[in-house]
């Protein structure tokens, strides 16, 4: 992997991806943040050596470098998932690349279903902790100790100071921002009624199919990390209706202006 990382980083440096301060993973609900960035360089995933390629139709496939609120940023427009057939090492490979390019912090967005029925679709949830239900770890490979501490501490995976700043920004801008625990499952199928009940019992407030692998690797690399979920549906096992992907995307779009405000105002403080 070290050889692959060097090849990828050298390609991006030659492209002009120089000294970014911050990495951003644009999941569902933050795609329009691209319009706020002064783009300097971009590279399609399928042109970047050793990079996976996004296969989900509503996830783009570009790595973007530019200026946002006065900070140099490198942005993943579209992410990778285990349910696309990728390994956890594939899914998290871009985080390792962004760290080698120079980022010191990583911000992540995603779409999630609300397990906590006090949370409503169209609202946002700041991730305070997580539960990894993806069946393995992105650190479970031979030679991982050459890239960072094998037994990575996860007692505080999300940066407390950054989370407090997010909460302050939300209050100032009258944005509903819950705080809770995110459970990450493999997917791509949605959960059964029994699975939603189980998730509630083990302490999850929201469930999705991403983010946790990237957060684990960011902690492995000692990056400051924070993540926000757009709550796109309400997962009430006693009143469960068939899922509508178009409705999920519509709810993500509804919350997008608030998500963009949170991220832009936070970046000003970094």
UniProtKB/TrEMBL annotation:
Pfam families: PNP_UDP_1
GO process annotations (BP): nucleoside metabolic process
E.C. number: 2.4.2.1
Keyword Cell membrane: no
Keyword entries, A-Z: Glycosyltransferase, Transferase
Limits of the Nucleoside phosphorylase domain: 22-268
Domain of life assignment: Bacteria
CDD domains documented for this protein: PNP-EcPNPII_like
InterPro entries on file: Nucleoside_phosphorylase_d, Nucleoside_phosphorylase_sf, Purine_phosphorylase
GO molecular function: purine-nucleoside phosphorylase activity
GO cellular component: cytoplasm
EC category name: transferase
Pathway recorded for this protein: Purine metabolism; purine nucleoside salvage
Function: The purine nucleoside phosphorylases catalyze the phosphorolytic breakdown of the N-glycosidic bond in the beta-(deoxy)ribonucleoside molecules, with the formation of the corresponding free purine bases and pentose-1-phosphate.
Family from the record: Belongs to the PNP/MTAP phosphorylase family.
Name under which the protein is recorded: Purine nucleoside phosphorylase
Species this chain originates from: Seonamhaeicola aphaedonensis
């Amino acid at each position: 992997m070290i050889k692959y990382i060097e090849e990828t980083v050298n390609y991006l440096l030659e492209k002009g991806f120089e000294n970014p301060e911050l990495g951003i993973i644009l999941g569902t609900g933050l795609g329009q943040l691209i319009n706020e960035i002064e783009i300097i360089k971009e590279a399609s995933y399928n042109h970047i050596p050793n990079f996976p390629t996004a296969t989900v139709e509503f996830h783009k496939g570009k790595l973007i470098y530019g200026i946002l609120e006065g900070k140099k940023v490198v942005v993943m427009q579209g992410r990778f998932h285990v349910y696309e057939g990728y390994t956890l090492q594939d899914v998290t490979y871009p985080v390792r690349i962004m760290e080698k390019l120079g980022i010191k912090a990583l911000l992540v967005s995603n779409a999630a279903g609300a397990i906590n029925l006090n949370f409503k679709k169209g609202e946002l949830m700041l991730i305070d902790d997580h539960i990894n239900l993806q069946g393995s770890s992105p650190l479970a490979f031979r030679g991982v100790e050459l890239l960072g501490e094998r037994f990575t501490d996860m007692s505080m995976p999300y940066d407390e100071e950054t989370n407090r700043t997010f909460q302050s920004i939300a209050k100032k801008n009258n944005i509903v921002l819950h705080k809770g625990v995110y459970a990450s499952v493999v997917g791509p199928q949605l959960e059964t009624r029994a699975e939603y009940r189980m998730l509630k019992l083990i302490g999850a407030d929201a469930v999705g199919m991403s983010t946790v692998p990237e957060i684990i690797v960011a902690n492995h690399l000692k990056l400051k990390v924070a993540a926000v979920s757009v709550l796109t549906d309400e997962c009430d096992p006693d009143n469960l209706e068939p899922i509508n992907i178009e409705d999920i995307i519509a709810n993500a779009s509804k919350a997008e202006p608030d998500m963009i405000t949170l991220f832009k105002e936070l970046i000003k403080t970094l």
